[in-house]
Amino acid sequence: MSDEDVELEARLEEQEVFEPSDSFVEQANVSDAGIYDEFEENWPECWEQAAELLDWEEEYDQVLDNSNPPFYEWFTDGTINASTNCLDRHLDERGDEAAIEWVGEPVDEDNVTLTYSELHEKVNEAAAALRDLGVGEDDVVTMYMPMIPELPIAMLACARIGAPHSVVFAGFSADALATRMNAADSEYLVTCDGYYRRGDPLDHLDKANEGLSGVEHDTETVVVDRLGPNGDDFGHDLAEDQHDWGELMAAHEGAEVEPVDRDAEDMLFLMYTSGTTGEPKGVKHTTGGYLSWTAWTSQAVLDIKPEDTYFCSADIGWITGHSYIVYGPLALGTTTMMYEGTPDHPDRDRLWEIVEEYEANQLYTAPTAIRAFMKWGTEYPDEHDLSSLRLLGTVGEPINPRAWKWYYKHIGNEECPVVDTWWQTETGGMMVTTLPGVKDMKPGSAGPPLPGLDARIVDTNGEEVDPGRAGYLTVNKPWPGMLRTLYKNDERFIEEYWAEYSDTDSSNSDDWVYFPEDGAKIDEDGYITVLGRVDDVINVSGHRLGTMEIESAIVGVEGVAEAAVVGGDHEVKGEAVYAYVITEEGQEETDEFREEIVQGVLDAIGPIARPEQVIFTPELPKTRSGKIMRRLLEDIANEEDLGDTSTLRNPEIVEDIRKVVQED
Ligand code: 6R9
């Protein structure tokens, strides 16, 4: 490093508050600080500003119906179609502009640009094909696909005919697919033969078929041919209830499908996510509220304009991809990018190469990726011209100030505001973050709640805690993008998100408080620092995993008597999975058996849940009531001071476990 660089690093390290540049503010979609007061005074009507970003078939009567909390309804009696809003209405002005820039794995240089007209055409053909297969309004269509253009095409086709989609991340296992299709009674699946990973073809249909064999009802499957001849080796033949996507599309060439009028409160999609118990939760999002929320936040926070090229490196299989690759950006008529591959193939400058080539204006990624970039070194971004970038964003987990500053300096050249956006699958879109054209940034802190939102940090009694003290994050007013319920499980919806801090007997909406299960603190300026989950969910590389899900996978392995899973600190992943395992009598505690356990997790969930360490232990630390003390296990994983262990039934076990971990 030159002297100048050293000086710069030192200055950055000390700086705690960063102002957005004048040039950014001048052109920002939102730059008037009055918006906070305006929204507060004018709540909930302020959210008409979000609804106004959309084209409605039938105008709504009421912005919010809060007569039956927590079953809130937004934009009541309005009707709207999401695919019309993402496609048809842009055709006149932006028909020839790119809607999706798809960058494939660099296998045969087959990148694809889909203009709004082309995407519209394909979505219509796919909608006609799905309808012909029997998909009707309100039938749940499952999608199990990687980052290929057919995924958003199929999603928008479903939206057009009023069939909710349920996208299952392609990295999830066959079991995970079966569980989700069964839970949603989903009779249709769209999947593909395979895809590329780091240049090599990977079989996917095999996994899909295995999943289908665990589905309890009849199904129809559509299979996209992603690999062409490169997939021949997998030797797939389609079964009778399986159809080739390409043939279906060809048979419906030029078809036009009248978009179905959906009530604002009709379901747009389901997304299964991890929670405290083993069963994944089917989060239900609606058409009017969700689309308003993602469009408004895309505009206000990501500063998206139609002429932008916007790049979010998430996978559409997660909520970030739904909200901020597909629905938000397309509703605004911008160009949204999709990247099929990984950031390190063919080399570690892959993302920067893409940013340069496509002149991307925004980059929205995860702290885990930023920490990996940091580790790889500045030479990779330095090789590329990144001056097209105007704004940077992060999501998925807390970002440490060092990673924030690295991103700000080495990717944003100290000219791009960084938005650290806190939100969840359940919230539909961003909740706590700075408005980049209005607020200063504080690395490590997401920022204040967005205008019109009331988020507080409270203690276990629901009393607000003083600035600087750790507490629980709560959201005290409803918002349009919120989940409406857990699919077919209103009771669990109340139990999981509301019971903790609400007066559940009250029909007054003021008595209802949403609890996202995150710990947080607030500073004197109202900036919120999210500390992480307070339930049994761990966050590995920004992916939410339930410890119970992983534990049940492990105890499913023959020879395992009991298991406890916790998150331990990890330099790049944020958290990593640590599995403490008690074996059955007679089971040898060998490395081979460790491998079997790891395989059990891969089979049940997928590679994202791979345990970093499997630790054999004779016992688990338990409270007197028999609850496993995960906090202790976490501290052992992180080699921290153990504090008070007096409530343990078996305090001596802690030392034993610690010894085993240190020996490993
Ligand atoms: C969008 C998404 C949600 C959980 C959430 C929290 C963590 C997300 C964060 C963050 C700190 C941020 N989280 N963004 N923590 N700062 N900017 O990630 O949804 O997969 O449902 O995860 O992720 O713990 O509760 P989801």
Automatic annotation (TrEMBL):
<dbReference type="InterPro" id="IPR042099">
    <property type="entry name" value="ANL_N_sf"/>
</dbReference>
<dbReference type="Pfam" id="PF13193">
    <property type="entry name" value="AMP-binding_C"/>
</dbReference>
<dbReference type="GO" id="GO:0003987">
    <property type="term" value="F:acetate-CoA ligase activity"/>
</dbReference>
<keyword id="KW-0436">Ligase</keyword>
<dbReference type="Pfam" id="PF00501">
    <property type="entry name" value="AMP-binding"/>
</dbReference>
<dbReference type="GO" id="GO:0043955">
    <property type="term" value="F:3-hydroxypropionyl-CoA synthetase activity"/>
</dbReference>
<dbReference type="InterPro" id="IPR020845">
    <property type="entry name" value="AMP-binding_CS"/>
</dbReference>
<dbReference type="InterPro" id="IPR025110">
    <property type="entry name" value="AMP-bd_C"/>
</dbReference>
<dbReference type="Pfam" id="PF16177">
    <property type="entry name" value="ACAS_N"/>
</dbReference>
<feature type="domain" description="Acetyl-coenzyme A synthetase N-terminal">
    <location>
        <begin position="35"/>
        <end position="86"/>
    </location>
</feature>
<protein>
    <recommendedName>
        <fullName>Acetate--CoA ligase</fullName>
        <ecNumber>6.2.1.1</ecNumber>
    </recommendedName>
</protein>
<keyword id="KW-0547">Nucleotide-binding</keyword>
<dbReference type="InterPro" id="IPR011904">
    <property type="entry name" value="Ac_CoA_lig"/>
</dbReference>
<dbReference type="GO" id="GO:0043427">
    <property type="term" value="P:carbon fixation by 3-hydroxypropionate cycle"/>
</dbReference>
<keyword id="KW-0067">ATP-binding</keyword>
<dbReference type="GO" id="GO:0019427">
    <property type="term" value="P:acetyl-CoA biosynthetic process from acetate"/>
</dbReference>
<feature type="domain" description="AMP-binding enzyme C-terminal">
    <location>
        <begin position="549"/>
        <end position="627"/>
    </location>
</feature>
<feature type="domain" description="AMP-dependent synthetase/ligase">
    <location>
        <begin position="88"/>
        <end position="479"/>
    </location>
</feature>
<dbReference type="GO" id="GO:0016208">
    <property type="term" value="F:AMP binding"/>
</dbReference>
<dbReference type="GO" id="GO:0005524">
    <property type="term" value="F:ATP binding"/>
</dbReference>
<dbReference type="InterPro" id="IPR045851">
    <property type="entry name" value="AMP-bd_C_sf"/>
</dbReference>
<dbReference type="InterPro" id="IPR032387">
    <property type="entry name" value="ACAS_N"/>
</dbReference>
<comment type="similarity">
    <text>Belongs to the ATP-dependent AMP-binding enzyme family.</text>
</comment>
<dbReference type="InterPro" id="IPR000873">
    <property type="entry name" value="AMP-dep_synth/lig_dom"/>
</dbReference>
